[in-house]
Structure formats: structure tokens, C-alpha cells
């Protein structure tokens, strides 16, 4: 498949933008080659600047559970845009979207909108520190919560699991306030809570991991997370990727979680920039202008993003059968991948929850981030390009999740498996 126009556009973009991209994963560093410049999407399909069509499993990294350019979502955005783009003042749509969030997450009493998942988790952490008066945060290796300084941290050595920066520009003084543990290691979490629970403001976690590839939480790990309450530690479920995807009430509903705060994004904005942090009133009322925890944003709650998000959530709410549909399609894709890779004698693990999944090229099971890192990246690279050149756009990193939408059909799954069979 030739992409001369994308190649020219990529060369041009690199003169003006670091790496030619607005977010690193898009530069294809993990898989090599020139990223197609995508200029049109419709349903489960995208077209690049050279006119090539792809079946899309990136789906903008999660927001597009309804597929690209859903007619009702686009129409609602157009209608609002006719009236003006932004006011920096309260708008009726904000409380309407907040109420939709509360219908999905009944334990939520107050919602604050921001513009990205990064802002949502950054603000939720500040709120947890302000509410508890404590300064330490716990996160897990392989979990990604956006690029706020204190979150670009890796597990340091030593029993204290002190964080060390995983990005230039993050002072080690910031990193030290983040304690990093292994996901799905309940005993390490219990030990840390026994040792330092009283110093910890919050535990931030992906309830189903998408950013190490998909990792599924074990029941005992979920249990250990909820034991944090005994130490006065707040539990923050980062549902930026899983919210409204794994169920209308996200992983919180699907797994029966009881977080003190949740962060949301992606589907919440329906494809436009909107995210949120939310929780019960006694915590959320600490946020300015009610309380002492400051957080603000010029375009927070902007009418276009509110319209796209509200249209998306209302369509999901009107079609509860969509989740069963996505479960069935995901199961069919998973089964097909397993059969094909087994038949070809290729060691693999397929981790899936609902409509998000990852193929690892390693002997299964892949339960921890350490397991995920055993994946054969060279084979993944050939898997990725073998699919891309046959018109199937898989996520260009093995440490990401592939996403289905309600616009994906059985025949799209069949086409994917056929392309993979040829590629293999
Ligand atoms: P944003 O700041 O990118 O809107 O959200 C950060 C974030 C927070 N929490 C979770 C669980 C997330 O998955 C993300 C962002 N996800 C990545 C995809 N793995 C966004 C894609 C990208 O960085 O380009």
C-alpha cells in the first residue's frame, strides 16, 4: 500500500512540530514507517490522505465507541456551534452532561469538567491531597494517567518503591512523592498500606489497564485496593479509558468498584476535548470556588464538547443493548485471533474486557506489567504492518488497547482475521 502524500505531509510536519505529531504514539516510533495522515472517518473506517481506506481499531484511542462521525453527534455539535463556540460563562449543557454522568455513576454527587484526562487525574490528585492533608500518591507500573509531572514516574529500587522520574524535566523531588507498585500484586499494596498508609493521600489506578496493553485486575487486587479505606486513603479509579466503555457505568459498574473519586475522559467528550473528575459532595466541595483546592480552565465545559459528550451518552443510554453487542463482537474477535495464532503455532495471549483488547506475542497468561513486557516486539511490528498494508489499522504499539465500536460489524471481524491470516 503506497502512501506518498502521507510521506510528504509527514516530512513537512516534522519541520514545524516535534516529531511531526501532537502526541508521541502517533509518530509510529514503536512500529516504524510513516504514519498515515488520516483525513476522514465514517463508522468503523478511516481514509488517509492518499485515499487508502482502513478498518480502524485505534478509534482515536477510545473516544469513538459510536464510530467515526456519528450523524447525530455531528449534528448536535453543528447546531451548538451556530450559536457560538465558547463563552467562558455557565452554559445549560454543562449541568445536563453532569446529570448524565451521575446516571452512569450513581455514587457521584458532583462533577467538574476539564479538557483532558491529564487535567482530570492531575486535579483529582490535588483534591485528594487537599482533602486528606497528606502528600503521598500510589500508582502502578504500566498504568498511564496522562503526563502530569508526578505521574511520569517509574518504580524506583528498594522496599519503599520510591518513584524516580521517567521523563526529563520532572524534578526528583516531585517523583519522590509518588510511590509505585506492581499492578495485580495485592500483598505489596497491603504491605505498603501497613507501613505507610497514614501518609498516603490516594491510590490512583486503571480499573482495567489499557496502557500496558490490556491487563485484567485480579479479584484479590481489587479487594486490596478497597482495603485502603481503613487507612483513610482515597481510592481514585481512572476511568478515562474504561468509562462508558465497559458498561454505561464503566469498570465501576462492571466490576462493582467503590472508588472515592473517578476520572473520566475520551467517550465523555464524544470526540471533542472534555474530561472530568467526580465524586461525593463531601470531597468535591473542597474544590474552588466552594473550597480551598484550586482548579480552573478557559475551555472547561465548553458548549461544543458538552454537546458531543451529551449526544454520545444519550445515544448509549438509549441503546443499552450496545454493550451486549460489543461483548459479542469482542468475543468473536478474541476467539478468531486465538484460533488463528494457535493454528500458526505462534505463542500469544489475548487480553480482553468488553470492547478493548490486546494481543501479546508471549506465552500467556499476561497478568502483570512484567508479563506484558515479555511480548515479542519484533513480531508485533510485523503483525502491525501486515495488517496495515491489508487495510486494517491496529494500534501502533503493543502497550495499547485496540477498540471496537458499535459501527464495527461481524464482517469487519472476518476481514481482520483474513488479513491477519495472509499477513502471518
Ligand atoms: P489525555 O490527557 O490523553 O486526554 O488522557 C490521559 C489518560 C488518562 N488516563 C488514562 C487511563 C488514559 O488512557 C489516558 C490517555 N490514553 C492514551 C492512550 N493510551 C492517549 C493517547 C495518546 O497519549 O496519544
Report on this structure.
The chain has helices at residues 4-16, 71-82, 92-104, 117-132, 172-175, 186-196, 219-226, 250-255, 281-284, 303-318, 321-343, 369-372, 377-388, 410-423; strands spanning 38-42, 45-48, 53-56, 110-114, 136-140, 153-155, 163-165, 178-181, 200-205, 234-238, 261-264, 275-279, 349-353, 356-360, 392-393, 402-403. The strands form four sheets. Strands 4-12-11-10-9-5-8 form a seven-stranded mixed sheet, with helices on both faces. The protein has a four-stranded mixed sheet with strand order 1-2-3-15. The protein starts with a helix and ends with a helix. The protein has 14 helices and 16 strands. Strand 13 (349-353) and strand 14 (356-360) form a beta hairpin. It is an alpha/beta fold. The model has no long low-confidence stretch (mean pLDDT 96). Ligand KE4 binds at residues 23, 25, 61, 116-118, 121, 144-146, 206, 210-211, 238, 240-241, 265, 275, 400.
In short:
The protein is an alpha/beta fold and 424 residues long. Helices cover 37% and strands 16% of the residues.
Report the C-alpha radius of gyration, rounded. Answer: 21 Å
The unreliable regions are: none
**Attached small molecules:** ligand KE4
Q: Globular, elongated, flat, extended or rod-shaped: what is the shape?
A: globular
Note the beta-strand portion.
Answer: 15-25%
Q: What is the structural class? A: alpha/beta
Q: Can you tell me the CATH class of the domain at 97-318? A: Alpha Beta
Sequence of strands across the biggest β-sheet: 4-12-11-10-9-5-8
Order of helices and strands: HEEEHHEHEEEHEHEHEHEEHHHEEHHEEH
Amino acid at each position: 500500500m503506497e502512501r506518498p502524500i502521507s510521506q510528504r505531509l509527514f516530512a513537512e510536519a516534522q519541520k514545524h512540530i516535534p516529531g511531526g505529531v501532537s502526541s508521541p504514539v502517533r509518530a509510529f516510533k514503536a512500529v516504524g514507517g510513516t504514519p498515515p495522515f488520516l483525513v476522514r472517518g465514517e463508522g468503523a473506517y478511516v481514509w488517509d490522505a492518499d485515499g487508502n481506506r482502513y478498518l480502524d481499531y485505534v478509534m482515536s484511542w477510545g473516544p469513538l465507541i459510536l464510530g467515526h462521525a456519528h450523524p447525530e453527534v455531528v449534528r448536535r455539535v453543528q447546531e451548538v456551534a451556530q450559536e457560538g463556540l465558547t463563552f467562558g460563562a455557565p452554559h445549560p449543557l454543562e449541568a445536563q452532561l453532569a446529570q448524565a454522568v451521575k446516571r452512569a455513576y450513581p455514587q457521584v454527587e458532583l462533577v467538574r469538567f476539564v479538557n483532558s484526562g491529564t487535567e482530570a487525574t492531575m486535579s483529582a490528585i490535588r483534591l485528594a491531597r487537599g482533602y486528606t492533608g497528606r502528600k503521598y500518591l500510589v500508582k502502578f507500573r504500566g498504568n498511564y494517567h496522562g503526563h502530569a509531572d508526578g505521574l511520569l514516574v517509574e518504580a524506583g529500587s528498594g522496599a519503599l518503591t520510591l518513584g524516580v522520574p521517567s521523563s526529563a524535566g520532572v524534578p526528583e523531588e516531585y517523583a519522590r512523592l509518588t510511590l509505585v507498585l506492581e499492578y495485580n500484586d495485592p500483598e505489596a499494596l497491603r504491605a505498603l498500606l501497613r507501613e505507610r498508609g497514614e501518609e498516603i493521600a490516594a491510590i490512583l489506578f486503571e480499573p482495567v489497564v489499557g496502557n500496558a496493553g490490556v491487563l485484567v485486575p485480579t479479584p484479590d487486587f481489587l479487594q486490596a485496593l478497597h482495603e485502603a479505606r481503613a487507612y483513610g486513603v482515597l481510592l481514585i479509579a481512572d476511568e478515562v479509558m474504561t468509562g462508558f466503555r465497559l458498561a454505561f457505568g464503566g469498570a465501576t459498574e462492571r466490576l462493582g468498584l467503590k472508588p472515592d473519586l473517578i476520572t473520566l475522559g475520551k467517550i465523555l467528550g464524544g470526540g471533542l476535548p472534555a474530561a472530568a473528575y467526580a465524586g461525593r459532595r463531601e470531597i468535591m466541595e473542597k474544590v474552588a470556588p466552594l473550597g480551598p483546592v484550586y482548579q480552573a480552565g478557559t475551555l472547561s465545559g465548553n458548549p461544543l464538547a458538552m454537546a458531543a459528550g451529551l449526544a454520545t451518552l444519550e445515544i448509549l443510554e438509549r441503546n443499552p443493548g450496545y454493550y451486549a453487542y460489543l461483548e459479542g463482537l469482542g468475543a468473536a474477535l478474541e476467539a478468531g485471533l486465538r484460533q488463528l495464532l494457535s493454528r500458526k503455532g505462534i505463542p500469544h495471549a489475548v487480553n480482553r474486557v468488553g470492547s478493548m483488547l490486546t494481543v501479546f506475542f508471549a506465552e500467556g497468561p499476561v497478568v502483570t506489567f512484567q508479563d506484558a513486557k515479555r511480548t515479542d516486539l519484533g513480531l508485533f511490528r510485523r503483525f502491525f504492518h501486515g495488517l496495515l498494508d491489508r487495510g486494517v489499522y491496529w494500534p501502533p504499539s503493543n502497550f495499547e488497547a485496540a477498540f471496537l465500536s458499535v459501527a464495527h460489524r461481524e464482517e469487519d471481524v472476518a476481514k481482520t482475521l483474513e488479513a491477519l491470516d495472509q499477513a502471518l
